[in-house]
């Protein structure tokens, strides 16, 4: 027998009650019982137990919450307190499977469209931020290239453009901010430069990071409608080999470009045309005398 009447109890602890397996009588009269889900187990237990008599069970009243004050405890609707764990697990698992299938479908069939849309949004947000900042660009050109072509960039492009022509270039290994996410470094480098020079090769076309760089540069080109993108081909790439890289193919169809001379050929015309391209001001994009050579 357990007498706990007039003890200002509001919640009946299930663990305490279960610790008395031979309990045959329970007196809870005069307590300030709470009619909510914390006592739902007690309502169910009182109505179903054949071993324990709860004194004046049907006379026990609620003291909390205020809207139920004075109501009978055993009239509490405990249905809303029961969670169907099985249904919840089924619903969660089904949702997870559907999301996974949808994600796999999008990645398999629309991979590049999804990636392109993401980086367009990223560049759009960055572009809006840049428009609020005072004008003044840090570099003359951002150099987008694949690591396999770094030797050409360091031995040919960098000495000619920086040392000979006096341009200030933005290079990954030298000018990216340490600790900053690489995509933020790329976007900042492109938008803080007057131009973007893409050094195109087969390695470049196969690089995921180079693809992202040219996507951001393309967005800036079409958004600002200014001549900010210069394409430099290090090797001859037939049109049919460009077909998988539809964005690059679209660019060379709309823009003129430069081709690096073959071994033994004079490079002076190439460097002169590249100088002209870099000197072109940020006017609306139009054809300029840089036909592929």
From TrEMBL:
**Recorded GO terms, molecular function?**
signaling receptor activity
Q: Where in the cell is it found?
A: Membrane
GO CC terms: plasma membrane
Biological process per Gene Ontology, one example term: innate immune response
* SMART domains per record: LRRCT (SM00082), TIR (SM00255)
PANTHER family assigned: LOW QUALITY PROTEIN: TOLL-LIKE RECEPTOR 13-RELATED, TOLL-LIKE RECEPTOR
Q: What is this protein called?
A: Toll-like receptor 13
């Amino acid at each position: 027998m357990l007498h706990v009447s007039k003890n200002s109890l509001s919640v009946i602890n299930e663990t305490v009650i279960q610790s008395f397996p031979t309990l045959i009588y329970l007196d809870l009269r005069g307590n300030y019982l709470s009619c909510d889900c914390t006592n739902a187990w007690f309502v169910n237990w009182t109505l179903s137990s054949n071993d324990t008599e709860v004194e004046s069970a049907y006379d026990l009243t609620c003291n909390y919450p205020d809207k139920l004050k004075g109501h009978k405890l055993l009239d509490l609707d405990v249905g809303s307190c029961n969670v169907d764990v099985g249904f919840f697990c089924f619903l969660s698992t089904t949702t997870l499977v559907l999301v996974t299938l949808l994600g796999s479908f999008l990645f398999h069939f629309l991979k590049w469209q999804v990636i392109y849309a993401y980086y367009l949004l990223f560049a759009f947000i960055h572009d809006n931020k840049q428009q609020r900042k005072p004008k003044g660009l840090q570099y003359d050109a951002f150099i987008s290239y694949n690591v396999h072509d770094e030797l050409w960039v360091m031995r040919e492009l960098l000495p000619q453009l920086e040392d000979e022509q006096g341009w200030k270039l933005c290079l990954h290994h030298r000018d990216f901010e340490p600790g900053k996410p690489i995509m933020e470094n790329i976007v900042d480098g492109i938008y803080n430069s007057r131009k973007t020079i893409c050094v195109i090769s087969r390695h470049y076309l196969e690089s995921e990071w180079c693809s992202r760089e040219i996507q951001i540069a393309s967005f800036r080109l079409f958004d600002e409608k200014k001549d900010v993108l210069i394409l430099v081909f290090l090797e001859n790439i037939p049109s049919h080999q460009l077909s998988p890289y539809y964005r690059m193919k679209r660019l060379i169809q709309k823009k003129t470009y430069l081709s690096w001379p073959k071994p033994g050929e004079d490079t002076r015309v190439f460097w002169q045309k590249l100088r002209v391209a870099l000197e072109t001001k940020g006017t609306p994009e139009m054809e300029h005398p840089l036909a592929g050579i």
